Amino acid sequence: MHVAILAGGRGVRLRPYTTALPKPLVPIGEEYCILDIILRQLKMHGFTRVTLAIGHLGTLIRAFVGDGSRWGLEVDYAEEDKPLSTIGPLLNFLDRLPEHFLVMNGDVLTNLDYAALLCSHQRSLAPLTVATYQRKVKIDFGTLETVEGHIVKFREKPTLSYGVSMGVYAMSRNVLARYPKNVPFGFDDLVLDLLDRDEQPHAYDFNGYWLDIGRPDDYDEANRAFEELRPILLPHVRPVADVEVAS
Q1: Cβ–Cβ under 8 Å, residues 136 and 157
Q2: Residue 156 forms part of a structural domain
Q3: How many domains does the chain have?
Q4: Mean pLDDT, residues 136-159
Q5: What is the pTM of this model?
Q6: Is 115 within 8 Å of 123 (Cβ atoms)?
Q7: Res. 159: pLDDT tops 80
Q8: Could you say which of 15, 127, 137, 243 is the most buried, measured as most Cβ atoms within 10 Å of its Cβ?
């Protein structure tokens, strides 16, 4: 039960919040940061080992997480000295990973069952399993379809639905072993290469709560709704106020 957490990005889209803090350490609510929530969830789902891929402001992540004993986890680190995109960092520490493992971004808030995702991947025998979510996009304009200069279909301000990657994946070491180390290699590169090889990734559909904290609006929404979301994200953790009242 091993997970690699990608925590080396610069969080450019989330500035100014990430000017002094790496994105996984930005606070959510009054008690937690994103990474704290993720580590608590991983422990709850039975994971025992975590490798943190760090880069930008990585020393702060090391200082906060340490050896992981605070969460009952065994944590080690892989530091990148240049940006390697999403999959590239993994290729430099494949020898530390078991045959099947989880990979996730360090800025995801969700109540996804991580262990169920990993088990599904092992059963599917797929080269890659991607946690997917249906994202609805409201179009603020009337949309047109034309054929040879003639309008053949019109929809007034439709809402479109797309399956998107949640930034959580299950992978197999033998699949990644074919790719070169220490070069930038993204999730898009991996998926496109697998499709070219006719090795189709598996989709793990999820309809619970998911928020990718990539923009200031997303971050503000996460903080605004956190007290409502706490029982969903951390069902076995009592709020500090309740603990103080009980004591």
Answers
A1: no
A2: no
A3: 1
A4: 89
A5: 0.85
A6: no
A7: yes
A8: 127
pLDDT at residue 186, as a whole number: 92
Q: Is 81 helix (H, G, I), strand (E, B) or coil?
A: coil
Segments of 71-190 assigned E as strands? 74-79, 100-105, 108-110, 128-138, 143-147, 150-155, 159-172
Classified as helix, coil or strand, 38 is helix
Residue 180 lies in a domain: yes
Residue 7 lies in a domain: yes
Residue 108's domain spans which residues?
A: 2-132+164-246
Is residue 45 in a domain? yes
Ranking 72-76, 116-120, 217-221 by mean pLDDT, the lowest is 217-221
The domain spanning residue 36 has which CATH number?
A: 3.90.550.10
Quote the CA–CA distance of 52 and 70 in Å, as a whole number. 15
